[in-house]
Amino acid sequence: MGLREIEYAEEYRSGEDDALTSFFLPSFRAARTYDRAVGYFSSSALESFAEPFERFVQFGGTVRLVASVEVHRDDLEAIERQAGREAACEARILEIIDQEFSGKTLSTGVQKLAALLEMGRLEIRIAVPKTGRGIYHEKVGIFDGDETDYVAFAGSTNESRQALEFNYECIDVFPSWRSPSRALNKKKHFEALWESRAPGATTYTFSDAAKRKLIRAVLHEPTGPGGSGKSEEAGLWPHQRAALQEFLSKQRGILEMATGTGKTRTALAVLRHLISHGSIRTAIVTADGSDLLDQWAADLATSLQACTPRFRLLKHYREHHQRDEYLIDSDLSVLLCSRQALQPVLKRMSGPEKRDAFVVHDEVHRFGSASHVAELDGETEEVPWRLGLSATPDREYDQAGNAFIERNVGEVIFRYPLEDAIADGVLCEFDYLPLEWDPSADDKREVQALMARRSARDAAGNPVMSEEEFRREVARVYKVSVEKVPLFVQFVQARPDALERCIVFLAEKSYGLYVSDHIHAITPRFRTYFDADEPAALKEFATGIIDCLLTCHRVSEGIDIRSVRTVVLLSADRARLETIQRIGRCLRTDPTNPGKRALVVDFIRRRSGPAAEPTGDELRRQWLEALSQIKGRVHASQ
Prior knowledge:
By secondary structure, this protein is α/β, with parallel strands linked by helices.
């Protein structure tokens, strides 16, 4: 979705319009940059400024902020001298930081802004009137989209819920394609203000000294005598605190926690505890997939800001190549790396380095692959702190891989299953809709051909196709059956709302392209997301630019998009492992939708005749129907 597709009103007025949901949030979903001039530099101003654009900055947006400070009367004489104007302004900023940001509990919005400032995603400049003792108080903003489209606005409001819902405020809106002259004037004015060319105001950069002091005041706030205390448990749910304490007592092992119940948050709390208590000098976090690693990078960057002593974050995956820098000096460093990069790191680390280390394996069941068993067995023997995270740690049909994980990471030391998470209100309740379908004649012929091939191999003395191999081949036939697609289309035509905030899981890319041809006739607001696709698809889905995502495995694990409401299982495994991961995409609670109730749509193959045992589809149906009957207690979302 682009800015031009949003139906903008000419103005938004308190009591008549909901500017937050009708103007700001849609604009943040479509914009690429955001320029804003506000009245005051203070903790409350930054808090209100932070509220609506969290997803915008999380997925690539950049912000330029012009704020103002009011200088003391004693500084007027200095301000009259141009040489003293900037020094007086900076002195006032440093004073505000001491008074407004230090020694108090600040909102997460302000903390995120400080982290963005340090990462270079937020740039602040300060405007001071050229005469008098007042402040620069004009409020103007610009959302810049793709190509030449932009939207300017001006008015009295800050974009906080307090201002938009309780204050009497009004903003005027000027889309560039509808009000080109007014929009251009606002855009030119902001650029002039940013570059200190605006009449009546002088604009200064936010100095390095002020930047460092603000970051330190917000993100490095002491937690009590000696700077330690129990800050690592702040904000954790009871099950997360229990998991934290269990790991600290065992020092190694796996946390088996349902998707969406905060495995990452718990691991970060462990990391902060180990750092603050001097238990480690270095750490390695490893996972599969650039999307999941990017999510870890953002969480680690924020979490490490609050640690004392300060650890640096190094990355080695995709375009990041800091592994050698880590190996040269791993002290007070966290390395975030792909699983493929882990082996050379562990082999080159010295014994003393390993004995001061903490290693985190996210989605630890993937650590048990045959290549890792061959390359990494015993490499972490000297590492005292080893943590595995997974909703499904057991590798079904792979005892060698399971034994390797237990030797090198540990056994499962804490469990928090889906059933408990839904009952506790940590995950949301869901409806389950099984759609029954019949295989085609072509499907049946393909299965018969597999049976004939298996018999022929057996008769010819060739290696026998194992029962497990045969089941996988038969399952693939049914996973890509075209017979399910008309049933799916019929469902979404009757329930088009089901495609809003929806992930459709498929067996393979070619089948996904076939399905996408049918979805396109219903809605254009979808994207496919397979291995060759650009990661922009996930960002567009997460920010609401598109409604529906068609994918195979790429978002089955780890990715946290709380707005997902529907999961469609056009293909599903006999084993529960992948199904647990997939339905977990829609079971996360959503702070912006407290009444969220998820929907899981499943496809159940009808039996062709009597069977001694339930089929895999029938077993999955029984399990998911039982889960959907669980009622949850109301729980504060995080």
